[in-house]
Design brief:
By secondary structure, this protein is α/β, with parallel strands linked by helices. It has 12 helices and 8 strands. Strands 1-2-4-3-5-6-7-8 form an 8-stranded mixed beta sheet, with helices on both faces. The radius of gyration is 24 Å and the shape is globular.
Length: 346
Amino acid sequence: MIVEISEWIVGAWYISAPMVVLTVLFAIIMWGVFYQSYKSKSTLEEYKHPGTLIEVNGRKMHLYFSGQGSQTVVMDSALGSSCLDWSWIQPKIASVAKVVTYDRAGYGWSEPSKNPRTSEEIVEELRELLVIARIPPPYILVGHSFGGLSMRLFQQKYPDEVSGLVLVDSTPENLFGTLPPDYMKKLSMEKRMIKAAKLLAPFGLLRLFKMPMGNLILPEEQKEAARQLGYQTCAYTTAYRELLSMDKSMQQVSLLKGKQPLTIPVYVISRGEFQQGSLTEETILAVNQNWNKLQSEIAHTSSKHKHLIANESGHFIHCEKPEMVAELILTMIKEMEKDLLREDAK
């Protein structure tokens, strides 16, 4: 009898043990989903937006306006980043001009969008946002990385509304066909990592392992807000959707690129360093030379151009070398002020 009971207990354990493990695992997953959802909502309440929430096409977008002056500067960020990326720059420019930073749909304090995440869609959303906020053109457009690609498209679609372009390590529209195979493999790996992040984010795992989306090279008072906003599920999803649409965004810029040089000033600042990682020195040298060439080509789309290279800086130049980027924007503003004075003198 005792033997039979023992055998029954052992048999029951073999049957129920997997169920116990699955039940515990399911409970952990559901707790992660609940915690991620709760923290995402509480973050928006705990970290108040610095600007204004404006309804655009049925959803709220965050715009931060500061400064005063005759020029209006509008800034757009890299893939995965919020308006906080411009925290080093905005106060410096606001001392002499009106400055607008904003969160693209799905980042920072802006609600996500179901619309395509191409540059064309982003340009239309930004333009509508500026119209509703009653911030009239002309604009000096400043864009970093993917934001630079979109700002170039804005100028192409609405040339009469743009007085100048400042591009910070902007994504070239012909980038992918020019990179060494080893570096393309690196970019493919990064794309898979962002896809994995998108899939894991709803379960709170990236929050658990402290892997926020976006840049944290920020002033101390902005870092925690940027970190918590970077844990939002929609930030990972939006970054992946923008990445999936990158080829189409590049095509949109290529199709509208004019054959004649622009007559507005185009100032370009590009990085001086690429992280080597597991890549060979030859590959990094080739990537660096090619990147500088592409950045120079972007600058030369205008007859009034400048191209600076930020030595000892990586991709986030406006955070690593903010004085250099601010000075470049201020130089453009000063040149435009001089042009206005000359016109008034006539």
